[in-house]
Amino acid sequence: xxxxxxxxxxxxxxxxMTEDAAAEWLAVAASELSGYLRISVxxxxxxxxxxxxxxxxxxxxxxxxxxxxxxxxxxxxxERRLPGNGRAKALPSPQAxxxxxxxxxxxxxxxxxxx
Length: 115
Known about the structure:
Order of helices and strands: HHHHH
Radius of gyration: 14 Å
Number of strands: 0
Strand content: under 5%
Helix content: 55-70%
Structural class: mainly alpha
Distance between the termini: 24 Å
Largest sheet: none
Number of helices: 5
């Protein structure tokens, strides 16, 4: 999921976003989307790459896309992780942190991103 998230971020990343901020965004975005079906997330990210114009729109867009495309759920929204619902979020594993670091370094090497 990290490469697809990094591709979305690369298209809309503000010039002022530092490598550390991009790595933090990738970690939080991956954490928010973990637990959903991979194929649903990938389809939502593909749609987000075409429609989102700001990095803050990506995760909400993907969740909304998954809700709309999963008609078998009879219109019930997917479980949302709202503050106070009792589930603590784990930090990314060292392997995930390494992948996030590689993705953000790759973004920094290609400075043609939008503001």
